[in-house]
Amino acid sequence: MGRMTAKKDFRTLVCFWGFILFSLILPASSQAIVAGMPVPPGQQDIYYDKIASPVLTDDPLEAKPVGFGSAAQGGNTLSVRFSLPAFDGPVDIYVAFTLSTAPAYINILSSDGQTFKTFLIDDVVQQFAMGTLPSGVEKWKSNQIGPLDDTSFGDIPLSDIESGIYYVYFLVTPAGRVDRYYLWETYFLNPLLSDFQTCSGKPSNPIGIQDRRLLIATSPDGINFSRTNTVLADNSSVPDAIVLPSGRMLVYYVTSCKITSSQNSDLNEIVAAVSDNNGNSWAYKNVTFNGVPSGSTPPVDPNVVLKPDGSLRLFATIDPDVMGTQKARTYSFISTDGGFTYNMEGERFSVSGMDVLDPENFRFSDTNWKIYAGTRHATSTDGNTFTDQGTICVATDDLGRCFIVADITDFSSAAPLYRMYVHGIIGTSEGIRSLTSTDTNTWTLEAGNRLTIDTSAGKEYMYVNFPTVGRLNNGTYIMIYETRIP
Questions:
Q1: For the whole prediction, is pTM greater than 0.70?
Q2: What sign for the dihedral angle of Cα 376, 380, 384, 386?
Q3: Could you tell me which CATH number the domain at 197-484 has?
C-alpha cells in the first residue's frame, strides 16, 4: 500500500482534512435564521461522483457540497472547496472519511475542527442504524444555521499524501438527534505512483526469463476466461496475485528488467504490480526484503497469503549458499505496510537432496496450511512448521505427467469450495486446467480447459502456464498468466 512521503505522516494528513474540508464556518450567533435548505425530515443518503467544484443549492438531492479541484479530473493537485447554503433551522454536523487502504476504520472529525478520532466502521454503522453513535463521537458543529464556503487550505500536491481512495462523508442532522439526516458521500482518488517502468519486448539473444511475458484474462465465473491481450509485464515470470479487502490487487512476480533513470536488464528480483481500479490501470512498485541470509540468492517464486490480522505473508524460494551443497528451499516473510516491505520470518519447507521451487502456499484455515511445490506437497497446522508429504499428483496431463499446481482460489459461498489452477501438456503445448475440492484433500479435475495457447493476436508463443487468479471487487475473476514473447 502506498506510503506517505517523509514530508507528512498520516496524523498530518488527518489534520489537513480538518482544515481543508471543514473550517471557516460562520458562528451561529452571528447568523439570522433564514429560509434555506430544510432541516432533514427523514433519512436521506446522497452519493455523487467526484467533482472539481461544489454545487450549491437548497435542494439536498441536488447539492454537492465537496469539490476537489483538479484531483477530481486526473490532476496532481488537491484543491478542496466545501460549500453549503443556510438551513431553515438549527442542525448538527458530523464529518468523517475512510481510506481504501484501511477499510475497517472510519475517521470522524472532532469538535476542534483539526483532529480526527478513529473508530471501527462496523461499530459506527451498527449504532447509527439504531439512531445513536458510539461513545466518543463528537459533533463537528452544533446548532448551526448559516452558510459556509471554504477554500482556506489552498493547494496540496497529491504526492504529499497517502495513496488510495478517500471517501468523504458529510452528515447533517436536526440539532440534538441522529435518527433523521442527510448523508452525502463522495470521494477522490490519489493514485499510486510507479517506482519504475516495465520493459517491452525481448533482447535479440534472451537468457533466463528475458523472453517471458505476463498477460491478463478475465472471467465472470472463474471457469470461462477471455483474453484481454493486455501485457502486464515483459521479461517477467511466475506471478502470484492477491486481492485485499480494500479492493486493491497486488500481483507479485519476478522480473529481469525495469526502467528507472536508465534501463536495467541484469535483474532477478520480486516486484509488484498494483491496481486500485479492478485491473484497469497498474502501478509498478519495488518490494524490499529484509533479513535475507548472507551469501544466498535473492528471494524468487513469490506466493502471498493474507492473514486475519491484515498482514501479508509471502513465501519465496531461496538457495542458501548459491553454488554450495545446500538446495533451494521455501522461506517466509511478513509485511505490515501493505505488501511493499517484507521481513524474514524463517525457513518453512525443505527436502533433503532436492530443490524445492515455486511454492504455492494456501491458508485454508489457521490450522490447515498446504504447500505445493511442483509435485511436492507439505502440510502445516500453524503455517510455520511444514511436514513433507512426499510427491502428489492431483491429475495427469495429455502426456500422462502430473499437472503442476500453480494457484488456489477460494470460491466458498454457502459451502466450502476451492478451485486449483494447474498447468501441463494439453494437446501439443502447455495449457491451463482446473480442479475443485470441498475438503482441501480430494481434488476433482473439471471438464474443459481454462486457457490454451492462442497465437492469433501476436501476444503468445509456445505455451501458457503459471496462472494466478483473484476475484475483483466488481465480481470479475482476473487471471495473470505466463507465456513466451513471440
A1: yes
A2: negative
A3: 2.115.10.20
